[in-house]
């Protein structure tokens, strides 16, 4: 059973860079057929997909966030990392990491989410 766990600061000041880590256990992030996603949900709003990094290292980010977002990985630690630059209060949200199965076209596993507040 794959498990995902987000970690990072709960409070970030405007204009800073937010860095979140998703630690994966019970399976490797380099296993074929999976992409590892970041998704967020602002208070009172729906889910917003931010981007992913796949088993082969390829990445893709949402066009609306592309200029500020990067996703990387540390295979030695079985982690993938989100960096969101120049944060604004509207980036306040619960951030989730999730595994996407390419062949099954489904999000099979999610982290519990981590709350991030952007405020001075």
Strand element count: 11
The secondary-structure class comes to mainly beta
User: What's the shape?
Assistant: globular
- Average of the residue pLDDT scores: 96
Give the low-pLDDT segments: none
User: How far apart are the termini?
Assistant: 39 Å
Rg from alpha-carbon coordinates:
14 Å
Order of helices and strands: EEEEEEEEEEE
Summarize the main sheet: 7 strands, mixed
DSSP helix fraction? under 10%
In terms of DSSP E residues, the strand content is over 45%
Quickly count the helices: 0
Supply database-style keywords.
single chain; mainly beta; 120 residues; four-stranded antiparallel beta sheet
Structural write-up:
This protein is an all-beta fold. It has no helices and 11 strands. It has strands at 3-7, 11-12, 18-25, 34-41, 48-54, 59-61, 69-74, 79-84, 93-101, 106-110, 114-118. The strands form 2 sheets. Strands 2, 4, 5, 6, 9, 10 and 11 form a 7-stranded mixed sheet that branches. A 4-stranded antiparallel sheet has the order 1-3-8-7, with no helix packed on it. A hairpin with a 4-residue loop joins β5 and β6. It is globular and about 40 Å long.
């Amino acid at each position: 059973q794959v498990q995902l766990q987000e970690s990072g600061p709960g409070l970030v000041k405007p204009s800073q860079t937010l860095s979140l880590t998703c630690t994966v256990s019970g399976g490797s992030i380099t296993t074929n057929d999976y992409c590892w996603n970041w998704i967020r949900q602002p208070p009172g709003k729906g889910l917003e997909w931010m981007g992913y990094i796949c088993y082969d290292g390829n990445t893709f980010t949402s066009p609306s966030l592309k200029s500020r977002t990067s996703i990387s990985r540390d295979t030695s630690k079985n982690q993938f990392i989100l960096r969101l630059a120049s944060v604004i209060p509207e980036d306040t949200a619960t951030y989730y990491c999730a595994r996407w199965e390419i062949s099954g076209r489904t999000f099979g596993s999610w982290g519990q989410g981590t709350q991030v507040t952007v405020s001075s």
